Automatic annotation (TrEMBL):
Species of the source: Aegilops tauschii subsp. strangulata
Source taxon at top rank: Eukaryota
Keyword vocabulary terms for this entry: Signal
InterPro entries registered for this protein in UniProt: AB_hydrolase_fold, LACT/PDAT_acylTrfase
BP GO terms, sorted: lipid metabolic process
Name of the protein: Lecithin-cholesterol acyltransferase-like 1
Length: 382
């Protein structure tokens, strides 16, 4: 669905452009989707690898290496699967009130300010992220570092409710603000077009909501959101519950991600919102159903601890419930007509197994209900 939307994105960016020259182009900042930013890691002596895994020993003290996306390395040595999965994990630091890396693992986002980290060395992911959009924009006159910029981020983290610590998102917000200002200044003080995909849309929406309105009106010409509604997706409830995905991944990357993503702060942010889905059954078992209103109970049944469920309630849920219009011109583009997970059936309540999938309409990832909620202002399903 994302690739089919690319011509519409390019057309939207060119609508206000006179036919004469490239200088009329407004600068564009791309914010990629979930898992579309490359991460590098460095291990210190503090890192304790999983027992009998051999992880870490060849890497400790040897500088930065590619942690995500790492298709080539995993193809050459599949035993690295557990290593990368362990090193991608996050832990919650109750003293700091925030998520952080596993002790001994240092990470950084690759090439912030550019689109160079949007690519993947996995041929099956060639069209998943924004590579095609970058190529299309370059064909109509955009140039990397001149009027085309990228804002990759660590997709494991997420915005937290106001007043709670979220060092990673705060750092991203500060960097994005400076990037937008520099992009505008470099292009004759023209305001910037923010183009986002998937989780990047959530990051951008929260960023704008927490930025002064005067700044938004000065620096942001348009927000374009691709493949994102306002209410999460039932599909995201599956990997949080089912260990079958990690045991039988569709690819080595999928296995690494599924193995570790129960620890990611961002997974809570992608769960279905009570404002959109309300009491609609999303997970069905013989004894009871779970709706978005029952998400805390579902997480507990799926094996999350009381502390983890509390973090969903206090950190992630308030962000989802309080998503607001960014008060800048906005266009949302989403695909329809593709079977998309609408409900999960764990009939015997065996959440470690593979559920029966009940499909509805959407783009294959994002359910139509959450897309339509944009038009309703995020109102609850009746």
């Amino acid at each position: 669905a994302f690739q089919r939307l690319l011509p519409l994105v390019v057309l939207l960016l060119l609508v206000a452009r006179p036919s004469s020259a490239v200088p009329s182009l407004h600068p564009v900042v791309l914010v990629p989707g979930n898992t579309c930013s490359q991460l590098e890691a460095r291990l210190t002596d503090e890192y304790e690898p999983p027992p009998a895994s051999g992880c870490g020993v060849p890497r400790q003290g040897r500088g930065w290496f590619r942690l995500w996306d790492n298709f080539t390395a995993l193809q050459e040595d599949p035993s690295l699967f557990r290593c990368y999965a362990d090193q991608l994990r996050l832990v919650y630091d109750p003293r700091a009130g925030d998520y952080r890396n596993v002790p001994g693992v240092k990470t950084r986002v690759v090439a912030f300010g550019t689109t160079r980290s949007f690519g993947s060395d996995d041929p099956s992911r060639k069209n998943v992220c924004m590579e095609g959009l970058v190529e299309a924009l370059e064909r109509v006159g955009y140039r990397e570092g001149e009027n085309l910029f990228g804002a990759p981020y660590d997709f494991r983290y997420a915005p937290a409710a106001p007043g709670l610590a979220s060092r990673a998102f705060s750092g991203f917000s500060s960097s994005l603000r400076l990037l937008v200002e520099r992009a505008s200044q470099r292009n004759g003080n023209k305001p910037v077009v923010l183009v986002t995909h998937s989780l990047g849309g959530l990051f951008a929406a929260v960023f704008l909501d927490r930025t002064p309105l005067r700044w938004r009106r000065r620096y942001v010409k348009h927000l374009v959101m691709l493949c994102l509604g306002v209410g999460g997706s039932p599909l995201n409830m599956w990997p949080l519950a089912s260990k079958a995905l990690a045991a039988n991944p569709t690819s080595l990357q999928a296995g690494v991600l599924t193995y570790g993503n129960r620890s990611f702060a961002s997974m809570f942010s992608l769960l279905p919102s009570p404002r959109v889905y309300g009491r609609t059954p999303l997970v069905i078992t013989r004894d009871r159903n779970y709706s978005a209103d029952d998400m805390a109970e579902y997480l507990a049944a799926a094996g999350f601890s009381e502390d983890e469920v509390a973090r969903y309630r206090t950190r992630a849920l308030p962000v989802t419930l309080n998503l607001r219009a960014p008060l800048v011109p906005m266009t949302a583009m989403n695909g329809v007509g593709v079977p998309t997970v609408d409900k999960l059936v764990f009939w015997d309540a065996n959440f470690s197994g593979k559920p029966k999938l009940v499909n509805g309409d959407g783009d294959g990832q994002i359910n139509l209900e959450t897309v339509l909620a944009l038009q309703r202002g995020g109102s609850r399903t009746k």
